[in-house]
Design brief:
Elements: E1 4-9, E2 27-28, E3 31-32, H1 33-41, E4 49-52, H2 57-66, E5 72-75, H3 82-87, E6 100-105, H4 113-125, E7 130-138, E8 142-146, E9 152-157, H5 158-161, E10 168-179, H6 180-188, H7 207-213, E11 218-221
Parallel strand pairs: 1-4, 1-6, 4-5, 7-11
Antiparallel strand pairs: 2-3, 6-10, 7-10, 8-9
Length: about 240
């Protein structure tokens, strides 16, 4: 089986949610989000890599140490966007041996093990270069565009593109698996869409369109459950779950 390295993007500082600690450490039913993610990914990578901010490095390391969950840590010195964070994976000791990368945002507490399993199985079975999970929702923040044959054409972040969300559409949930080399090479290039119009940050989802244009094999699997859409941007997002 191809070597899979797990990568958790957990550099969110929690300030926008009014938290004095990294938002990935926010407890859901008594367990921090990050620990829930670790438990789900351990069958793919016994020592995942976590991208952390300078201020979040110590509390995140302490939380994982207390839970006896080994990890590699890579610091993103400045919040320069998700694409910049993913590129930092090259600094991890796990980078060299990983052929594929299983990437998950560090603020999604309810992604289910069976969803990850189905995504990874499809990715390897179909020999994809990039596979991700989606769901059709009202007013999606990210929008998957498909061609006439139903294939993925790209993913638009509506805020960064300078537009308003459509009334309905297909969106990602922050869960991806991809072949390392073509994605990291694409992220490293100065390509159209690299910088968001709103924030100026280095994005991530724009790489999908460039991979499509390069003839890479991309799949969006509309298998996400409604609960898997929940992410921690503000504490109101978790009403009824804590």
């Amino acid at each position: 089986m191809a070597e899979i390295g797990a990568l958790i993007a957990a550099a969110g500082r929690g300030s926008r949610a009014g938290l004095p600690f990294p938002k990935t450490l926010y407890p859901i039913q008594g367990k921090p989000i990050l620990l829930r993610i670790f438990e789900m990914l351990r069958s793919y990578d016994a020592q995942p890599t976590v991208i952390v901010s300078p201020s979040g490095a110590d509390p995140i390391a302490q939380s994982l140490e207390m839970a006896q969950m080994p990890a590699h840590f890579v610091i993103q010195p400045e919040p320069r966007g998700m694409g910049d964070a993913v590129l930092k994976y090259a600094q991890s000791p796990a980078y060299a041996s990983a052929e594929h990368v299983l990437l998950i945002w560090g603020d999604v507490p309810f992604v289910q093990p069976e969803t990850v399993s189905e995504m990874v199985a499809a990715h390897l079975r179909e020999d994809n270069d990039f596979t991700f999970v989606t769901r059709r929702v009202a007013r999606p923040y990210t929008v998957v565009s498909r061609d006439a044959g139903g294939g993925v054409a790209g993913v638009i972040e509506t805020r960064e593109a300078g537009g308003a969300p459509p009334s309905e559409g297909e969106r990602d949930i922050g869960l991806f698996v991809f072949r390392k080399r073509p994605v990291m090479e694409t992220l490293a290039q100065d390509l159209p869409g690299r910088r968001g119009r709103s924030t100026g940050e280095h994005g991530f989802l724009y790489v999908i369109e460039h991979l499509v244009h390069a003839g890479r094999k991309i799949a969006a699997l509309p298998i996400a459950k409604e609960i898997e859409l929940v992410s921690l941007n503000s504490l109101q997002d978790l009403n009824g779950f804590t």
